[in-house]
Write a structure and sequence with these properties.
The protein has about 250 residues and is of the alpha/beta class. It has 8 helices and 6 strands. Helix 5 packs across helix 8. About 35% of the residues are buried. It binds zinc ion (ZN).
């Protein structure tokens, strides 16, 4: 069969046609391919450079903007690599209110996490603000575009917990660890950065819940300070002993 097909193809080759039209067709195809590839390169270049340079201190300093709305294939790969037993949205967990930020490039890019290797603790640095206000601030960045920032969870002054970003997506909170960590922002009543008892109890509970879900030990619970040296969470940076007792409380049997 192959032989006859090859022979047929050879027979069909036009013998009296000059080579010029074939050359022009090939050249046109090459030119079109070049234009498509060049256009694609330019587009992906601008997408990466714009928001990244504006992100400054708020955690968006990695490769975040290559896909604002992650495609199904990337999400499937991320989920296959995730060995945790936790659902991505904790709507059935008592004590957690789910109020997800809508997909947008400044606070919820929809980029899959590459895994979960740590939980990063933060403070809001905005004394007296509530969990809902902080969640709404993250959501408002979609319109204002003033910076890139978000957190998977915010814990309020009364100990209330709001989930803002699904656990299989990146938040913009922990700089170069955005890609493999879950972030928790904690509200605080004053400039000392100390948490209320209610906030602390919820933080211990939530951190334990996540650490068990992801199989993390004490080394897998870190401060923003441990990532970049930023004074966050302030109280746990200035009081190393309190930080250690917090971690002991999380992992005590
Ligand atoms: Zn922080």
């Amino acid at each position: 069969m192959r032989r006859s097909a090859a022979g047929g193809a050879r027979l069909k080759q036009p013998t009296g046609v000059r080579p010029a039209p074939a050359f022009i067709i090939v050249a046109a195809i090459v030119l079109i391919a070049f234009i498509i590839i060049a256009g694609w390169l330019v587009r992906s270049g601008t997408a990466l450079s714009g928001p990244e340079s504006a992100a400054a201190d708020n955690g968006m300093t990695d490769d975040g903007f290559d896909s604002i709305f992650a495609d199904a294939e990337a999400r499937a790969i991320a989920q296959a690599a995730d060995h945790s037993q936790l659902p991505s949205v904790l709507e059935d967990v008592e004590g957690i209110t789910v109020d997800l930020i809508p997909l947008n490039e400044y606070s919820r890019p929809g980029v899959p996490l590459e895994g979960v290797n740590a939980i990063v603790i933060h403070y809001t640095a905005n004394p007296g603000s509530t969990a809902q206000q902080n969640r709404n601030y993250f959501a408002s960045l979609a319109d204002s575009g003033e910076t890139s920032a978000s957190s998977h969870f915010v814990i309020g002054l009364e100990g209330e917990i709001i989930q803002c970003v699904p656990l299989d997506e990146k938040s913009y909170c922990s700089n170069n660890r955005n890609s493999d960590t879950i972030s928790i922002e904690c509200c605080h009543p004053d400039a000392s950065g100390a948490f209320t008892d209610a906030t602390m109890q919820s933080l211990i509970w939530l951190t334990r819940y996540l650490a068990e879900g992801y199989g993390l030990d004490s080394d897998g619970v870190i401060r923003h300070y441990d990532v970049t040296g930023k004074l966050c969470p302030l109280y746990f940076v200035e009081h190393e002993d309190e930080w250690e007792s917090f971690k002991e409380a999380v992992f005590e049997k």
